[in-house]
TrEMBL record:
Domain of life, per lineage: Bacteria
Species annotation: Brevibacillus borstelensis AK1
EC code: 3.4.21.89
Record keyword Protease present: yes
A GO molecular function held by the record: serine-type endopeptidase activity
Active site, renumbered: S45, K86
Designated name of the protein: Signal peptidase I
Membrane-crossing segments per the record: 20-41
Pfam family, one: Peptidase_S26
Enzyme class: hydrolase
PANTHER family: CHLOROPLAST PROCESSING PEPTIDASE (PTHR43390:SF1), SIGNAL PEPTIDASE I (PTHR43390)
Localization annotation: Cell membrane; Membrane
GO BP terms in the entry: signal peptide processing
């Protein structure tokens, strides 16, 4: 094989690697921007469902097709440089309130099995898990979110309803630490 042929093959192989790398970077950008993104839980507002410093995958594409539903765990832009993770408890048209440590949507008590551990801890301390609030009427293009750790959560009770335009996506699964990999629903 001549030097010219070997040089040509090396150039072709380099070009193929550069194209593959470029395509990988473009695909990663598209996936991260429009489909899925990593998120790190910051704080204890979603205890015992999610824990501080857990890493999870957020599905950004799901809400291009539908709006958030009650029970979804979402990430949203709460402040200019900070995203929050909370659970959707009410959607547009709902009236939400808490009375006697029970969440009511449109006047009906909501079953919240994900709060069992938090309820037990609040009962041991002889305090309500959810202080009375509301009623709040949720407007068009809005949702009402609460942290599962109601005693330690900065949520719609303080910041008001969240506009759908601020929603990043739905939390799908925890991927770190590996020992706690699980679906978030």
């Amino acid at each position: 094989m001549s030097e010219e042929v070997a040089s040509s093959r090396a150039k072709n192989e380099t070009w193929e690697w550069l194209k593959a790398l470029g395509i990988a970077i473009i695909l990663a950008f598209i996936i991260r921007t429009f489909l899925f993104a990593p998120f790190i839980v910051d704080g204890e507002s979603m205890e015992h469902t999610l824990h501080n410093n857990e890493k999870l995958v957020v599905n950004k594409a799901i809400y291009y097709l539908s709006e958030p539903k009650r029970g979804d765990i979402i990430v949203f832009h709460a402040e200019e440089k900070r995203d929050y993770i909370k659970r959707v408890v009410a959607v547009a048209g709902d009236t939400v309130e808490a009375k006697d440590d029970q969440l009511l949507i449109n006047g009906k008590v909501v079953d919240e099995p994900y709060l069992a551990q938090n309820r037990k801890e609040a009962a041991e301390r002889k305090i309500p898990l959810t202080e009375d609030f509301g009623p709040f009427q949720i407007g068009e293009g809005q949702i009402f979110v609460l942290g599962d750790n109601r005693l330690n959560s900065h949520d719609s009770r303080a910041i008001g309803p969240v506009g759908l335009d601020r929603v990043v996506g739905r939390a799908e699964f925890v991927f770190w630490p590996f020992s706690d990999i699980r679906v978030t629903r």
